[in-house]
Amino acid sequence: MDIESRWPVGRQQTASMVFRQMKVQTRFAWAALAAACIWAAPGVHGSASAESVVVHVVLVWLKEAGNADHRQRIIDATRALADIPGVIQLHVGESVPSNREIVDDSFDVGLYFTFASVDDMRAYLVDPRHQAAVQEIFGPLSERYIAYDFEDKGWTSRPVDKFAE
Question: Residue 73: which H helix or E strand, with range?
Fold first, then answer.
């Protein structure tokens, strides 16, 4: 089976397009890592306490790309996971359209979690609520998803009231 026949009608891609998308995803991973490190640099946000966190980034491509209802179901299911022990932060939202070549905006929903440790992230991944969301929401609605995990050893928390300034 050639690569073009594996894509749904209207989403056919050539091998060169798939390779380009993989290159963009690699650039995204490095950009996400760099942004997290810059944002978390000690002293940047006025906090003197630095600690280590584990960051879990997930990008989701829907089976029905752009389907607003399916996108919202993924977002709502993700927000419900915030109550799982070990989750420090959770951010979830739609891809931001961009004309910049370096930006991969082909995904539908992006998720960003932080955990205090790798063990906390691993416990989250096997939590029944996470497993149910994957089986009942993510799996049925997603064409695919990809995760990036990394440890930021210089994370500095930003007090919520700093956003109001």
Answer: helix 68-80
